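Researcher: Good morning. I'm working through a list of sequences from a screen, and I'd like to move beyond sequence-only analysis. For each chain I'm collecting a predicted structure so we can compare shapes side by side. This is the next one on the list. No need for commentary yet; just the structure.
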Amino acid sequence: MRRVHLAMAARGIGIPELKERLEKLSGWQAGSSVYQWFRRKLLPAGPVTAALPRALEVSAEWLFWGEGAMDLISPTSPQQWVRGVQYAAARVAEATAELQQEAARHDRELAAGFPSGLAATSAAPVPGRVPLAPVRPRRRSQ
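Model: Good morning. Structure tokens for this chain:
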């Protein structure tokens, strides 16, 4: 995100203008997502990532990897776009793997009878708190 900030400062644009540029270039409706990237200090994944260098008018190598100069993008360099798309695909794969791990953890906790997030807590009682019992599904009466 540091290089995104540097590119925005060099171009004299703020978050609202970056959002507009990304919407024009990628056809994506950003909503408040661009503001969330800056709050969370995370770059987006997918086609928006591929449009980010064009929106900021910088090279993809510099923006994503810190390599080379922050020069304007040359339309005669398809390698920049290929690397940008590969980066975006890797980000999507990482996010998918994280979500799958979280879903598996959640499934294990439910199978063990714990509501999400409680399985990892310590078994030691906390003074002043009543321990929660595992949530079990009710049986339907027939």
